[in-house]
Amino acid sequence: MKLKRAILSGLIPVLANVAMGQSTYAPSGYSIETVSIPEDIPFHVTGLDIDSDGTVWVATRFGYIWRLDSGEEWTRFATGLHEPTGLLIDDDRSIVVAQKPELTRIVDLDGDGSADEYHQITSGFGFHDNYHEYHFGPVKDAQGYYYGALNLDHQAEGTLNLGAMGSVGGFRGWIYRTRPGGGFEPWALGLRSPAGLGMSPQGELFFTDNQGDWTATSKLHFVEPGKFYGHPVSLRDEPGYSVEAIRSVNESDLEPLRELPAVWIPNIEVGNSPGNPEWDTTGGRFGPFQGQIFIGDQTQSNVFRVSLQKVKGRYQGMVINFMDGFQCGIIRTRFHPDGSLWLGQTERGWASKGNRSFGVQKVVWDGTHPFEIQDIKLTDTGFAIRFTEALDQTLINLDTLSVQRFYYPYTRGYGAPKTGVENVPVKSAHLLVDGKTIAIKVDLVAGRVYEFDINRLRSLSGRSVTVSKAFYTLNQLVYP
Q1: Sign of the CA dihedral 322, 327, 329, 333?
Q2: In which band, very low, low, confident or very high, does the pLDDT at 18 lie, cut at 50, 70 and 90?
Q3: Is pLDDT of 6 > 70?
Q4: pLDDT score at 14
Q5: What is the pLDDT of residues 355-413, one digit of tens each?
Q6: pLDDT tens digits, residue range 322-346?
Q7: What ranges in 134-272 are assigned the alpha helix state H?
Q8: What gap in Å lies between CA 207 and CA 51, rounded to an integer?
Q9: Are 476 and 463 in contact (CB under 8 A)?
């Protein structure tokens, strides 16, 4: 009765929640704080946004929206949603939420802190009551469009599948967009399990996709309208394709049509169930990684970061682990106005590292300067590897820098290993005048992922990096 009365009142005090995973890497100065959550409630956070005043809003997969005011108490704002997997605080402070059958706006008319009206924005896609037909998003662009992403089904009746995931139709495996007043516009296709949408500070749309059938390893894509991102069953909603024709396609037919990811995310080594990309726009309040992208992983219960580089008009770049040891799988990340990184967590019945099934945590920085690989950029003859602190020049030689390269094949199989792995000799390496950047010369091949291991390097003060391995997806060469 105590729990029932608390839920009905909509107001629940925060209670201690200190369960943690086992950390194996964390930059100096960064620590995990566990946010208290309501007692005896399955607080599986699948949507997360933070208002400009610091108010935290979450959606839980059991159909609730909660608000955390000033870090003091959780207030239930809305109920009755169908497994929401994302929410957005809109300009008018209404809540736009992606639930399985529709995109919905929720309004508090009388200002009492509870939802009064639920307005459908769009339901122009198909939903067939399959547990795997998730609806991710929304994000919003400067022109006022909302974007959502539609997961493929799993063993739905009448589905078309060419592997583990399928589609009964209704634009499964698509990204769509819609105006605040409604409508439905298919935008891009070929997605598998796009658990994370993100809008960059420049207004460019990105998504992450999870490793599985037709997806060799998890990946981050830049989205362009009308483009095909690799999974073929979504073609059943594309004019000119029949189910019979799709069943007969093979990898060689589709490979010329698919878009390559901006970044491949090596399976297990970095992640295999990534959530939304979140850009560090904190102005240095989160340390020396301004402008980079932070992504949580639901299976690995870690956070990794991405640094993008545009070469010949196409995105590519570095991915590197940032921090692990979280209590549960991470599907949502959002920076708070105070500079901390908040993490919405759920295992959803799938395995994840850590010893909790759900929760909320945040990463805070105490101002201690870390020693880490800050960034890797492609040059015309190799790469520039920049660190956050000056290096011990005496340790920089051809033997202390290890480089490999490989590629991921396009295959209908459930994931694929690194293929064509080969060592890449470092022809030269020298420290630039900033004392923090090593320029290395290596043979460059487009269409490869370059793997760097610098575990034998040290800073001038004798420090080692906590993460010594980084990966750069090379799609385009600078020259020629």
Answers
A1: negative
A2: very low
A3: no
A4: 39
A5: 899 999 999 999 999 999 999 999 999 999 999 999 999 999 999 999 999 999 999 99
A6: 999 999 999 999 999 999 999 999 9
A7: 243-247, 251-254
A8: 22
A9: no
| Ranges of each domain in the chain | 2-365, 373-474
CATH class held by domain 2-365: mainly beta
What is the sign of the dihedral through the CA atoms of 373, 196, 217 and 200? negative
What is the arrangement of strands in the sheet containing 330-335, beginning at the earlier edge strand? Answer: 30-35, 358-365, 341-346, 330-335
Say how far apart CA 111 and CA 313 lie, in whole Å: 47
Residues 349-360: tens digit of each pLDDT: 777 888 899 999
**Can you read off the two tokens belonging to residue 213?**
């059938």
Question: For residue 318, is pLDDT > 50?
Answer: yes
Q: Is 402 exposed, middle or buried (0-12, 13-18, 19+ CB in 10 A)?
A: middle
Q: Which pLDDT band holds residue 244 (cuts at 50, 70, 90)?
A: very high
Burial 431-441 (b: 16+ CB within 10 A, else e): eeeeebbbbbb
Q: What is the DSSP string of 7-32?
A: HHHTEEE-B--------S---TTEEE
Do 199 and 138 touch, CB atoms closer than 8 A? no
**Alpha-carbon dihedral sign for residues 392, 396, 399, 400:** positive
Using the Cα atoms of residue 150, residue 153, residue 158 and residue 162 in order, give the sign of their dihedral.
positive
* pTM, 2 dp: 0.95
Residue 132 has pLDDT above 60, yes or no: yes
CATH architecture of 373-474: Sandwich (2.60)
Sheet of 428-431, strand order? 373-378, 382-387, 437-441, 428-431
DSSP assignment letter at 207: E
Kindly state the tokens that stand for 348: 């959803």
Q: What are phi and psi of 93, to 5 degrees?
A: 70, 10
